Amino acid sequence: MKVEVVSKKYETANVDALVFPVSKEEKNLRENIKKIDDVLEGGISKLKKTLKFEAEEGKFLIAPTYGKIKADFVILVGLGETKKIDKDTFRRVAAYTVREAKKQKFSKILIDINLNFEKLSPEDVAASITEGSILGNYSFDKYFTKKKDSSEVEKVEININVKDKTAVKEAVRVATVLAEAQNFTRDLVNEPANVINTVQFAKIAEDLAKQYGFEIKVYDEKEIEEMGMGAYLAVAKGSENPPRFIHLTYRPKHSKGEYAVVGKGLMFDSGGLNIKTGDFMRWMKTDKSGACAVLGIFKAIGELKPDITVHGIVAAAENMPSGKAYRPDDILRAKNGKTIEVGNTDAEGRLTLADALSYASELKPDAIIDMATLTGACVIALGEFTAGVMGNNQKLINEVLSVSQDTGEWMWQLPFNDKLREQIKAPHADVYNVGTTRYGGAITAGLFLEHFVDPKIPWVHIDIAGPSHHTSGWYYHPKGATGIPVRTITTLLLKKVNYIK
Questions:
Q1: pLDDT of res. 116
Q2: Where are the alpha helices (DSSP H) in 41-163?
Q3: Which of 117, 148, 216, 444 is most buried, by the most CB atoms less than 10 A from its CB?
Q4: Which of 24, 59, 256, 276 is an active site residue?
Q5: Which of 108, 237, 244, 350 is catalytic?
Q6: Which domain holds residue 284?
Q7: How far is the CA of 102 from the CAs of 17, 105, 149, in angstroms?
Q8: The domain boundary residue, chosen from 129, 163, 197
């Protein structure tokens, strides 16, 4: 999708429709819309009154211009109550607008943002509209043999109209990169396991490294064993597809910090010998969402080139049942030397992450952030739309939560405590890979991971099991993979070096 910043007179804009976002409190047409209404001999105000348009969020008023100005239509789109309007309002409304434009067969629209909101700058509004438009326009349809419904146009070009283009153009550039990186992540997550397996995923990472000049090292199963990654290797043993451990590095000339992002990389999870039922095995192609987010973050970093060193780490594997598969009661030794007693082979993601986090800790970064579709318990606790956040450093947790509020990727902190730590004490090893009860399962999973992070390194774990994928979609997330939390983590990294405010 093409998003362009312009500064045009409404009456001469060569577009299919002029779009004006309006709040519920705007009972009277503001000056710039009133001028067009006068040209249209009151066409907008009359239609507004007839249809009782109240500017509720995502509601449209579409007025024809009958050739009196260049654009064929004027559209008012509701923002809802002024006090509730924030960046995410504009993301949502932009997504709704793009879908409506496609439905109306508009191939080019102009969205006017000459608004007056005290808490939002023109840059904020333009960036949010850009993200919402690109994210809301996404669909994963490469495997359909029939063409799309001809009742809609395939592409919509967005012009964002402002008085001063200078600062807004940079905000739109960054927003475009972030949204396209998230869509790239969605594509990877949506691909089935017969298309992207462990070896193919490593190849995608290598192609990305070649495209942007990243350093990359891909370790095979022999090298993984030599590194002492016994937990990760145990999970991978049951599959015909061999494990691949991936380490990407972006290293600028003038680095102002060093961070590691770690993603759970289960290309498919059958549950292993503790095999999932059919309903719970469905959509397990999305168990690679954290790993795909790592590649999405690197795509954005490759485009933006901030002054911060970033390591991307993925332990790619499949969890399958076979004669080689690991078993309940097996005792495994992780890279950092700690032993793990297996309570359930379907708690495999944390085993792969144990070795990935141990590896990341050895790099001695300023902080580690891991992203994982780790537990159904987190979905039960927080629902399908919110990720759980845990870790060993409250300052970093607060930073992640603050940025997520800004990006519209909902997150909530879950508390660590010693009583739950007792539930992962194993009778015959250092730690169990599951809790002794089903209660607090998302937290006990996080507490398990804590054993494999250097306590001196700030670390945050984000359980994205709920919002990583949705069967029907919401707001600017069409059905399928969402690409969460690419924008949050990339934005956090950019803020660390003042690339953006």
A1: 77
A2: 43-51, 87-103, 122-136
A3: 444
A4: 276
A5: 350
A6: 179-496
A7: 12, 5, 11
A8: 163
Is residue 170 included in any domain, yes or no? no
Q: What is the pLDDT of residues 157-168, one digit of tens each?
A: 999 999 889 889
Regarding whether 326 and 273 lie in a shared domain, the answer is: yes
Q: Which of 130, 163, 196 is the C-terminal boundary of a domain?
A: 163
Is the same domain home to 93 and 219? no
Cβ atoms of residues 161 and 209 within 8 Å: no
- At 469, which amino acid appears? H
Cβ atoms of 447 and 359 closer than 8 Å: no
Residue 473 is predicted with a pLDDT of: 92
Tokens, residue 214: 């990243």
151: pLDDT confidence band, cut at 50, 70 and 90? low
Catalytic residue flag (residue 173): no
Lowest-confidence region among 117-131, 293-307, 398-412? 117-131
Residue 132 to residues 22, 137, 298, 386, 446, Cα–Cα distance (Å)? 17, 8, 21, 18, 32
Identity of the amino acid at 426: A
Asked if 139 contacts 132 with a C-beta cutoff of 8 angstroms, the reply is: no
Dump pLDDT digits (tens) for 290-333. 999 999 999 999 999 999 999 999 999 999 999 999 999 999 99
